[in-house]
Structure formats: C-alpha cells, structure tokens
Amino acid sequence: MASATLCELGSSVLRRDASIAPGSTADVHILFLIDQLCGRGGAESALLNIVRTLPARFRCSVITFRFDPSLALLKECPCPVRLLPLRRTYDLHAIRMAMKLKRYIKHERVDIVHTFFASADLWGGMVTKLSRRAFLVSSRRDMGFLRTAKHRIAYRAMRRIFDRVLAVSEQVRQYSIVKDRLDPQHVQTIPNSVNLERLVVSCSVAELRRHFELSEASHVISSIGNIRRIKGTDVLIRTAALVCREFPKAVFVIAGALDTAEPVYLRELHRLSEELDVARNVKFVGPLDEVAPLLRASDAFCLLSRSEGSSNALLEAMGCGLPCVATNVGGNPEALMDGCCGFLVENEDYAAAAARICAILRDPRMAKKVGELGLDSVKQRFLPEIVTDQLTQVYDQLLARRGVQDAS
Fold first, then answer.
1. What is the pLDDT of residues 249-281, one digit of tens each?
2. Residue pLDDT, tens place only, 359-371
3. Same domain, 75 and 127
4. For residue 21, what are the CA distances in angstroms to 74, 124, 262?
5. Do 213 and 341 share a domain, yes or no?
6. pLDDT of 198-217, one tens digit each?
7. Domain for residue 18, yes or no?
8. In the list 47, 203, 231, 301, which could disulfide-bond 322, CB 3.0-4.6 Å?
9. 3-state secondary structure 25-53
10. Is 1 inside any structural domain?
C-alpha cells in the first residue's frame, strides 16, 4: 500500500457523506493535507470532527503522506482519503509528488488547502501557492516542541505564504506570532472540539473496570497521551507514589503509544515505578482506538504535560464529567478553569497534583460537582458544531476575498 499513487488510494478508500449524493457538486472544495494518519491523535481527531460537521456546501477531501491502513479513522472518515507517498521533501520523488498534488488542486478545483503539521505546512504550502488557485490555511497545534532548527527557519522564511493560520489555543497563537513573525491579524484561535456522542458507552463502570483488569482498584485515575517526556509521564508516576500513600489500592492507568523517537523512556518509567514502589499501581495499556471506556471507568483524570498546545484528551475527560487535574501550561488553562471545572498545578509540581487528586478521591460529592461543571464548559465552548461554525467563518472570509479579486 505504501507505493500506491494518489488516485489509487482514492478509489480504494473512497467514502462520502450521506448528505451529499454521489455525483453532486458542493459549492466549495476543501482539501485537508496532513503529514500522516497513523493513529488517533489530537490532529487526527480534530480533522475527523471537521469533515463530519462542515455544512454540505463544502466538499471535503483528505490527502496524507503516510497512513496505517488498519486505522479505524480511515473507515469513519465521510470523505475521500488519498495517499500521496512522500518520504522526503527535497528529492526527485518529491518533485514528482509535487506535480501530482498541483494537478490535483487544479483538476479537482480545490478552493482551500488546510494543512496539518510541518511537511504539509511547508512543502504542501509551497505547492499550493504554485498552483495559483487555492487559499492556504495552516493549523498550528503545539508550542513547537517537535520543530527542528530547519523547521524554525523555514516557518519564519515562509510566513507570508499562509493566508490564515489557525491556532488551537491563545498560547499557541502567541507562540506562532512571536516565533514565526506572523501578522497577528492573520492568526486566529479556534479550539479543538469534542464529539460527546463518541463518549457514550453502554457498559457499567464495573464491566469497564473488569475489561481493563481494574476490579481490585479502589480508585482509577486515567491519563491519555503518547508516551514521551514532554507529556510528563514521569511526573505522573511521582504523583501516583504520593497518592498511593493515602489510597494504596488506587491505580493510575496510562493510555498512549510509545513515541518511537524516545525508545528508552518507557524503560525509565517502569524503573521509576519500581523505585517508588508503585509498579502495581501504575498500568500502561498502550494506544486505544476509543478512549471513552477508560474515561468512563475512571474516578479522575490527570494530565501533567510539560508543554501542551490544546489537549483533546483533557477535553474528552471533561466531556465524560470527570474531575480533572492538569498542568498550567499551553492551552490547558483556557480549557480548564482552576477551582471551577478542574484544578491546575504548576509544571513539575507532583506534590500539588497529588494533593488535588487526593482531595478529589476523598470527597465524591465535590468531585461530581467539578465534573459536572467541566461537562457544562465543554457543551458551551467545545462542541463540534460550535467550533466548525468558527472555521466556516474563516473559510467564507477567504472566499469573499476571491470574489472581490475576481470582480476586479
């Protein structure tokens, strides 16, 4: 499958929204360009929410440079998903792929290319501009912790090619303005969204805990995110050691894939669990296709990232009505109001995190109230239809510029 062409994959995984009849034409074609679809991360979930909720007047398609054919998201996506195999962005093969993408934008009459991640932003952005047809929208989702030196230089050098930059939080917006020297008028904050329907489960808490082999746990505290140092999993284990002094049968469940760029980190975490005598209280369950069962089996959620653009996992936990504890970094304070719908602690402060979790576990009534307020906040600010309405306004503003240009 890795050698499939752009058109071959398109015909093999084509799926359309039932609201648009085959053969019909929508008013506007949006092409989403994303580096890879190999897991259900924050960007992948955000992309799926967008294509599911955009009005029928928008025709969507997705192109990715790398994908996992077994990924459930590919089957769920209601629009065409195509592979454009791209190993490097600077060799002869990349030139051929650039020509394919340029022809696709022209022949499929793409109006807006919306990019996710560095290769899509920079390589895909340049190809988009060379097509001289589509507007370019970039989605910025973190504080640049994955950027290399060449990425930092390229983003700054190519800052003028983006017609609009969308940041998932105000902190990411400010980072993008300062580090990439972007015009603040072209950078807008549009948060992640949460599909509450995906968080509904039919099983009881007892059944869910049996599924995760947690029946003996007095309390379950979950944390979701890829296993990498930036996510602060080591801080979470130190937090667990303090919590388990008061609640010796509490279990901290960590869900997420091991970052292949940090192969020794998981071994460090297991060693730390042994040293702190909480190996029985810390459970790694790997990546989950659906996070709702784990969240519904939990008493609390804890996210102790060292950096965070905007955490989908935090919003999903709030959407499940869980009391949440998170670090005061990135977009976390924009989602979680401290003392109202959850609790914020300073980065690296595992003692404060443990104190907050213990307070939650001691007082179920308070925990329930905090969780309810978190759910209310999600319903008011982070539902897909609310976020998509903000996005369509951006698209329409760009398209209105084309109307003015065409008229002139």
1. 999 999 998 876 688 999 999 999 999 999 999
2. 999 999 999 999 9
3. yes
4. 20, 29, 46
5. yes
6. 999 999 999 999 999 999 99
7. yes
8. 301
9. CCCEEEEEEECCECCCCHHHHHHHHHHHH
10. no
CA-to-CA distance for 378 and 387, rounded, in angstroms? 11
Residues 344 and 402 in one domain: no
Mean pLDDT of the chain: 90
The neighbouring-strand residues paired with 324 are 301
Would 300 be classed as within a structural domain?
yes
> Residue 329: how many CA atoms within 13 Å on its side-chain side?
19
Residue 374 identity = G
**pTM, full prediction:** 0.88
Q: Which two tokens stand for residue 391?
A: 């996005």
State mean pLDDT over 321-336.
96
Domain count, the chain: 2
Q: Are residues 165 and 222 in the same domain?
A: no
Domain containing 319 equals 196-381
Same domain, 163 and 26: yes
**CATH code of the domain in which 287 resides:** 3.40.50.2000
55 and 84 assigned to the same domain: yes
Q: Count how many residues are written for the chain.
A: 408
399, part of any domain = yes
8 is written with which tokens? 């071959």
Tell me the backbone φ, ψ of residue 294, rounded to 5 degrees: -65, -45
Contacts 24+ apart (CB under 8 A), 355-362: 356/325, 357/221, 357/239, 357/243, 357/300, 357/302, 357/325, 358/242, 358/243, 358/246, 358/247, 360/299, 360/300, 360/323, 360/325, 361/219, 361/243, 361/246, 361/247, 361/250, 361/299, 361/300
Q: Do 397 and 353 have their domain in common?
A: no
Residues 98 and 118 in one domain: yes
CB of 164 closer than 8 Å to CB of 188: yes
